[in-house]
Each structure stands twice: as C-alpha cells, then as structure tokens.
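Could someone model 4'-deoxy-4'-aminopyridoxal-5'-phosphate with this protein?
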Amino acid sequence: MSEKTLALSSKLPGSGLSIFAVMSKMAVDYSAINLSQGFPDFNCSDELISLVNKYQRKGFNQYAPMPGAPALREKIAAKINTLYNKEYNYETEITVTAGATQALFTAITAFINKGDEAIIIEPAYDSYAPVVIMSGGIPKFVSMRSDFSFDWDSVKDAITEQTKMLIINSPHNPTGCILSESDIKILEEITRKKNIILLSDEVYEHIIFDGKKHLSLCQSDELSQKTLLISSFGKTYHTTGWKVGYCAAPKLLTDEFRKIHQFIVFAVNTPVQYAYAEYMNEPKHYLSLESFYQRKRDLLLSSLNNSGFNFTPAKGTYFQLLDYSDMSDKNDMDFSISLIKEVGVAVIPLSPFCTIDKSRKIIRVCFAKKDEVLLEAAEKLCAI
Ligand code: PMP
Ligand code: GLN
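Reply:
Sure, complex below.
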C-alpha cells in the first residue's frame, strides 16, 4: 500500500537554508578559511566562563523570571542610561531574550498583523522579512544609496497608511554603515505623527570605529517613544553561541512584546544571565571593543592593499565589504563559490541581503578572526 503524501502548506515557501549556514558548511567541506558567518574564532574571557560556572554551582539552574534576571535587567538599564542618557524602567521596559534573533522575531510577531507593511532597508539582515511574512504582513523593501548611505527619500516614499513598522539597523550588517545625527533628525521628521513602530537592531552598538559614537534611536526623546531597541550580548562579549540579547522599549510596547515572549521561550538561560550581570560591572569589557576590532579591520585592509579588491573601510560592525568588479565578471554567488573552492577563503555574497539590486559585485568578509587567520586569508586573496 503506498503511503499518502502529507499535504503541507509551507509558511515560507521561498526560504532555503540561510546563506550563513550554507557558506560556513562549504568552508568546512573545502577546508577553507572561514570569513563568512559572523562569529569570533577566538574564545570569550576566562573570567566570564568562571562566572557562569560560579552561578551554576551556586544553584542558579532553574527558570529565570519571564522578563529576565532582575540583576541583568538593572545592569542593562544602567548601561543604556550611561551611554545614551535614556532611562528605561528595568521592571517594565527591559526584557532579556534568547539572542537578538528571538527579540526580532518577538517584536515583529507582536506588532505586525495581516496586511500591515514593514519597511526594510536593503541590503538587509536575513531575519527581518521572513518574520513579517509569517505574521501575514508585507515587507516593503527600499534600497540604500549606491554608497550605502541611508536613502530617506525612498523610505519616505514607501510609507503608506498600512505602514506599521520601519526596521533600522545601525551599525549595519553587512555594509558597516552607521546612523549620523542628520539621519536621526530626518527619521524624526518622516515618522512624526505617524503610527509607525521603529524596530532598531543595534546588536553592533559597541563595534564602531574612527572615533565615531554609536547613535541609538533611544537618544531621541521623540523616537524612543516608538522604538523597540534590540541588542545582543553575543557580539559584545564574543559569545554568539550563548544566545542572549535584550529588548528595551516603553512599557506600552514592552507589555505586548512580553505577551509573545512568554510563549516563545518563557525565560532565558539563567546562569548566563547572572554571569553577564556581574561581568557588566566592568564597562571596559564593552568599551574596549572599538579599538579591539578597529585594529583587526585595519590589519585586514592594510593586508589587502595589494589585492584587486576596492573597498571603503567599514564604519562599524565586524564586517567589511569588498568590491571585486575589477577582478571578475562572475555574479557574487559564483565568485564566492570560486573563492572557497579555488582560493580557500569562504566569504558571503551580498545578493542574499537584497531583493532589489542583486547585481552588485560585492562580497562580505568577517574580521572577527585571529590576526594570523586574517593575514593568511589576505595573502590568499592578494594572490588572485
Ligand atoms: N541582527 C544582526 C544585524 C545580526 O548581524 C545578528 C547576528 N549575528 C543578529 C541580529 C542576531 O543576533 P543573535 O546572535 O544575538 O541572535
Ligand atoms: N549574524 C551573523 C552574520 O551576519 C550570522 C548569524 C546566523 O548565522 N544566523 O554572519
């Protein structure tokens, strides 16, 4: 008797495996240096590991409170206040999440209903649009300018009566661009008196270069009232595998956020939360990231000076875009595959971050890697 095939109706028929998973797997398969997926290839601090261990031994091994360990929420609120001069009530306005990915999923699910539009600025990180679609919403893509600055005229043109959310990411993955004071002013203007929620992905807030300061949307009194600020400890403490992040938002928004959060994870890893809370006593752990990663960016770029790539140094994040248009006519996917197979370096093509312009001859490399790995990769890339 032949088995009846299950009739499935996919929620995301157009989605395959993420480009980060695809490229990291290929890097392993072809023993290539992995500059593709964004994660450090060096360990987090011993002190932080000991703190997790300490809290595990002390018995902090059962469910944390639903919104997060109070000690950690207090530290997050204090840090935001110190850096951005914005007060959030840690009881009612800060929620600890299982990484920024869950915070983004929760925020979009909480506020996007059937037919709502969410504006997404391209190139865009891959976890925004699928969640809008799963929520019955419509992603409205707008492109950055060709120099990868924010094109606010296009954003303004995309706003309709149905626009419910505008997703902002600064420092920006994959382009490394950052919001300026004038961007914030324009953002205030174009969202003024509109019923639009701002979802601000600031996971690279502490990785910003050349003396610039990160501008958080929460620094603007006007914007902070409609903003869900998302960040991640994974980027800040070299612990992407621990998957802990947070959402800071006014009570009105946090109440709705938590309604969803409690049914997705309920609560997040307990000993890790207490360890981060204690580790945050020392601000240098996050303040030192700027110089730490700027040195790595500069090491990589100076080693690529004799390569065929053109580039503008990233202003933030641990990613650098490289333009190969003087080197090859291949599309970015084929070029990336040839780099893995023939050169031994895995990178990420830009086109999976885009729906509007997929034709650019640009790849992304991650420089959160040991110096010797960056130098070896650069040597291979210079030899093309
Ligand atoms: N947003 C951006 C822009 C990212 O690059 C990433 C991932 N690295 C995330 C969100 C997800 O962060 P997390 O690993 O904390 O889920
Ligand atoms: N954010 C990481 C990157 O941009 C990847 C995280 C993931 O694999 N989902 O490379």
